[in-house]
Amino acid sequence: xxxxxxxxxxxxxxxxxxxxxxxxxxxxxxxxxxxxxxxxxxxxxxxxxxxxxxxxxxxxxxxxxxxxxxxxxxxxxxxxxxxxxxxxxxxxxxxxxxxxxxxxxxxxxxxxxxxxxxxxxxxxxxxxxxxxxxxxxxxxxxxxxxxxxxxxxxxxxxxxxxxxxxxxxxxxxxxxxxxxxxxxxxxxxxxxxxxxxxxxxxxxxxxxxxxxxxxxxxxxxxxxxxxxxxxxxxxxxxxxxxxxxxxxxxxxxxxxxxxxxxxxxxxxxxxxxxxxxxxxxxxxxxxxxxxxxxxxxxxxxxxxxxxxxxxxxxxxxxxxxxxxxxxxxxxxxxxxxxxxxxxxxxxxxxxxxxxxxxxxxxxxxxxxxxxxxxxxxxxxxxxxxxxxxxxxxxxxxxxxxxxxxxxxxxxxxxxxxxxxxxxxxxxxxxxxxxxxxxxxxxxxxxxx
Length: 448
What we know:
This protein is of the alpha/beta class and 448 residues long. The chain has a single domain, classed as TIM Barrel. 33% of the residues lie in helices and 12% in strands. It has 15 helices and 16 strands. The strands form five sheets. An eight-stranded parallel beta sheet has the order 5-15-14-12-11-8-7-6. Helix 10 links the parallel strand 14 (301-305) and strand 15. The model has no long low-confidence stretch (mean pLDDT 94).
């Protein structure tokens, strides 16, 4: 560009609008061209305060570190110790979140079961029922009980090692998911009792209860069906974590699963994913406070999910008060989803490896989020299970390394005092001091 125009007037540098960004303009053009809202999978893509905004202090003189090769750091966790006769005992505090058969292929569900079982942890069915592949390869399987009731039956409930009543999901609090017709194959249609090839929208609320009193009745009903043997989880989205956790506990839950807005989904409205709910970081402390106010912290276990990627994330969630975490999107990536080796085919779909989120269209080149028989053949569930086991092992080793550096001989001994925040927002949400200070926004008994 020339510095001056034909009249000798200096050019100004073009400036992009901070409001009407390229992404915003693209969304407007898409809406204008199609007349329908955007549907996609995955989690929020906007940047929000996260575990990356926290740091561990580690040990020095005031705290004594543990030797990694000579001193143990426990990672085991029991879920469901409140009422269940048979709580779930896990070797590691990292579980596999619910992802449905329908959203995922049968071989992908098998791989999740294989990997979780090899790592000594549990996996979760998701919407759409229990597959023989997942039950057959999971020694500890949590059965999700969702508003849709797709695939739900008492026989499978009795086969489960725990039942998770899903009230909300982090990517879509107050909303239901979608399964497009091209993914409703003969098998999916049979399991869900749906017509083949017809788009389906899952319900956003349970059909037989409308509040916490009804939830209590539902929990008792499920306990009677299962003979009071297995734990009952209640999963809530990161909307009003203090009140939702309180009501779940009062309704009789053994475990509360809390899913923040970075949690993924197979398919829902983009506007939900980006604009409804709260960051995972903002949800943990209110939920922990609710448990503490009820005298139930550690008696009712808290499982946190939504954007967990590394052992550092695991350790930070536990330091803030969680008993365990759950991973979904990270598990799919470990299996091989969004792998750059399929870049050419992702390009043909109009996207790129790492950005592919049109899981609902059933064209996943990796063969993981599809029901296409030819694409499914690309995925090896044995290799996928091995990869997931390796990933879970690394997460656990990383979390242990951090715990030992903080002088802790068990992951559950991590505490907020081990953390500082890098930003004012993270300090306020996590209620840990801003680095270099002993203060966070909203700290009680602070004079201004």
